[in-house]
Structure formats: C-alpha cells, structure tokens
Amino acid sequence: MAATKELQRELENKANDLNKIQKDISKNHQVRKKYTIQLGENELVLKELDLLNEDANVYKLIGPVLVKQDLAEANANVRKRIDYISAELKRLDATLQDLEEKQNSKKEAIFKVQQRIQSLQAGKAKA
Amino acid sequence: MEKKGTVTQLSSIYPAEETQKASRRVQDAIAEREQQLNQLKAFIDDNTSIMNLVQKLPDETHHNIMVPFGKAAFFPGRLIHTNELTVLLGEGYYAERTSKQTAEILKRRGKALEAQVESLKAIMQDLKAEASFFDVTADESAEGLVEIREDYVEEASGTLPAAGHTKSENTPFVEVGDKKGAYEDEEYIRLLARMAELEKEEEEAAKGDVSNENEQIQNEPNSTSGQITTDEEVGSLSVEASEMPAVSKEVSSHGDYPALNNSMMNTSLEQPREKKEVQAPPTANKTAFTGSIVERAHDIRTNMPEQQIGTRSSKPVSRFKMQRK
C-alpha cells in the first residue's frame, strides 16, 4: 500500500517535470519564430543596402529621430546583427534538442513507473 | 469460411471522437494559415498601390494635398520634392531614394511576398490533405467499418513476409466483404499467375490420364472388365487418399501459423468426402467410372499445387481451394 502511494507520488513529480519541459519547449519555439522573422527582415535589409550606391544617404531610426549613418557602417551593423541572430538560433536549436532529449527520457521514466504501479496492482489483485 | 486473419473494428483503433479531435486541430491550423495568407495578400495589395503612387508622384513638380494633422484634422498643403523619398528598408534603416529606385525596391519586396504566399499555399495544401484524411477516418470509424488484416505467411523466403507486412499497413482500410482488394498487389498477382501455370500443367497431365483410361474403356467395353478398372481406380484413389494426411503433416511441419493449420484442416475435411465418392462407383458403372476419373484429376489438382506451392506459401493454396468449392 505504502509502496504504491510512493510510486504514485513519484509519477506525479515526473509528470510535473515533463509538463515544465514541454512548456520550455513551446517557449523555445516561440522565441525561435521571432528570431527567424527578424533574420528574414535583416537579410532583406542587407540585400537592399548592397544594391545602394556608395553615396546614398542612409538613416537609422533611433527613437523618434532619423540619424544619418554611413552606408558602410550600416552595412557592417546589419551583418553583425545577422551573425548574432544566427548564433542565437543555433543556440536555441541546441537547447531545443537538449530539452527534447530530456523530455523523452522523462517520458520513458514515467512509463516505467506506470508499469511498476500496474504490476503492483496486478499482484495485489491476485493476492 | 475459414478464419485467416483478424477483424478489428476501425473505431477501436481510431475512436471517432479522437479522430474528430485531430481533424479539428488540423482545421484550426488551416484557419491560422488562412489568416496569415490573408495578411500577406493585404501586404501585396498595399505594396502594389504604393508602387502605383510612387510611380505617379514625380509626374508633377508639386501636388496639392490634404496634410493629416493629428487624428481627425487635415489642412491643405503642398507636396514638393516629388522625386525624393525616404524608404524604410526594415529594422529601422531608411534610405534616400528616387521614386524610380523606390519602385524597384517595392518590386523586389513584392516578389518576396509572392514567394511567401506560395510556400504558405503549399503548407495549406498539405494540411488540407491531412484534414481530409482525418475526416475520412472519422467517418469510417463512425460507420462501424472493420479492418481485416490477414497474416501473409511465408516460411521459405524472408523477404516476402516483410512485403506482406508493409502491404497490410499500406491498405489498412479494407471495405467489408472486399477481402480481395487487400491482396491485389503485385505479389499476389504474381503468385496467382504461378498457380495458374501449375494448375494448367496438372490439368494437362490429368487430361493425358483421362484419355488413357478412355482408351482402356474402349478397348474393353464389357462391364466386368469395366468393373475391374473401377476397382483399380478405387484402389489407387484410396492410396492417394491415404497419402493426404502425410501431405498435410508435411505442410504443418513448416510452422504452426494459423493459416497453415487451416489448410491442414481443409485437407482433412475434404478427405472423407472424397472417400465417399470413391466408394460410390461400383453401383453405377459407366457414369461412376468417369466420375471417379474426374475425381482423380481433381485429386491431383488439390494434391500437386499443395506439394509444390505448400512449401512456398500456404495462404494462396487455401484461397485456391476456396474458389474451387
């Protein structure tokens, strides 16, 4: 009796952990989506900047004002931003994989606990 | 007739509620994509209208316009420098462009939007296919359709059972009473062709036998000798009948698959019937005699394919018997 209760508690804990991991995964997905959109936008900007003439006037909106920027500088900034976003995406991928692995192992553990509970109950029914 | 496979209610594998739930989820996803698509279409419309405007602006050196002032007020104004535009490139970057250059930027942007629309449409098509699949499954399980799955027993070669397995997975929904449909794959057609071939061979062999016996009859037309040949016939038949158990044993020794057991049962069931017919001939001479010959030919037909094909597969044989009955 006590053993089953303990197992049940263990199962509950594991289920909670699994829930947490799943929440993390969905959060990760959302962040990823945002970054992918930003990456697309930055790539578009870079393409347009590459097409501009050397002497074209480029501005950056900082708060309420447009600040004039050097084209080369703007170009470098956008590239840096793209690099940053790509690195971030890679990092997110790694964490996502990690989380998924954790999720799978948790699922397996839960399955095992469930089996143990079942076998215990079956044994009790026989007895 | 014979039990060869399992019949499962489709609703027990895919409960109607669950499939409906799944289909609803896919429908939601489709609706979401639809919204995205509409948004993209609105962007494209905006893009084309602004492109038209930008191309028209430099036609005049200045335009008389109403300048928005605050949220609700306008005042008359004049738009000058009609060929100078500051274009937002994204991410807070602006560039000073002429209207012609702006039009080009907008064109490129339009193309990017079109590409997005295309990919979205492809995704939606996939989702729609998925949804229709779920719907069909839900309907079928609600209608109480059953899935009939027969084991494709193959003991000699290891590759064929795998093929049979995938086949049963590929066609999980078999209409009731449409057992044939499940097996109309290449494998089965090939087997049938092979069986037909063997059958023809046996039939030809049997024909040869028949003509031989007929000659015997013509040569010795009196009833007593006819009686003798019949007796001979009976003897040979009973020998063959006693051979039957051995054959079935041979078949069963290949493995204890259910289909094999069935075929064994079949042969053992057939035996008494044939023996009865064999015992009939002496009462009515001539007709019974031809009958016994037919019986023999038929006997060979049942025996031979089983001996030859039985080692390959037991299922087709039992099916063949089914057709014969």
Automatic annotation (TrEMBL), chain A:
Q: Which GO terms describe its cellular component?
A: cytoplasm; prefoldin complex
Keyword Chaperone part of the UniProt annotation? yes
Question: Does the keyword section mention Nucleotide-binding?
Answer: no
Domain of life according to the entry: Eukaryota
Q: Which UniProt keywords apply?
A: Chaperone, Coiled coil
User: Which CDD domains does UniProt cross-reference here?
Assistant: Prefoldin_6
**InterPro entries named in the record:** PFD_beta-like (IPR002777), Prefoldin (IPR009053)
Citing just one GO molecular function, the answer is:
protein-folding chaperone binding
Q: Name one GO biological process term.
A: chaperone-mediated protein complex assembly
> Which spans of this chain does the record mark as coiled coil?
1-28, 82-116
Cross-referenced Pfam families: Prefoldin_2 (PF01920)
What the record says about family reads: Belongs to the prefoldin subunit beta family.
Protein name according to UniProt:
Prefoldin subunit 6
Which species is listed as the source?
Answer: Erythranthe guttata (Yellow monkey flower)
Which lineage ranks, top first, belong to the organism behind this chain? Answer: Eukaryota, Viridiplantae, Streptophyta, Embryophyta, Tracheophyta
From TrEMBL, chain B:
According to the UniProt record, one GO cellular component term is: nucleus
GO terms assigned for molecular function: chromatin binding; phosphatase inhibitor activity; transcription corepressor activity
Q: Name one GO biological process term.
A: protein folding
* InterPro entries noted in UniProt: Prefoldin (IPR009053), Prefoldin_subunit_alpha (IPR004127), RNA_pol_II_subunit5-mediator (IPR052255)
Please list the coiled coil stretches: 103-130
- Locations listed in the record: Nucleus
A Pfam family assignment: Prefoldin
The UniProt annotation puts the region (Disordered) at: 200-325
Composition-biased stretches, type Polar residues, lie in 211-229, 260-270, 304-316
This protein's UniProt keywords: Coiled coil, Nucleus
The family line of this record is: Belongs to the RNA polymerase II subunit 5-mediating protein family.
PANTHER family attached to this UniProt entry: RNA POLYMERASE II SUBUNIT 5-MEDIATING PROTEIN NNX3 (PTHR15111), UNCONVENTIONAL PREFOLDIN RPB5 INTERACTOR 1 (PTHR15111:SF0)
* Protein known as: RNA polymerase II subunit 5-mediating protein homolog
Q: Which organism is it from?
A: Erythranthe guttata
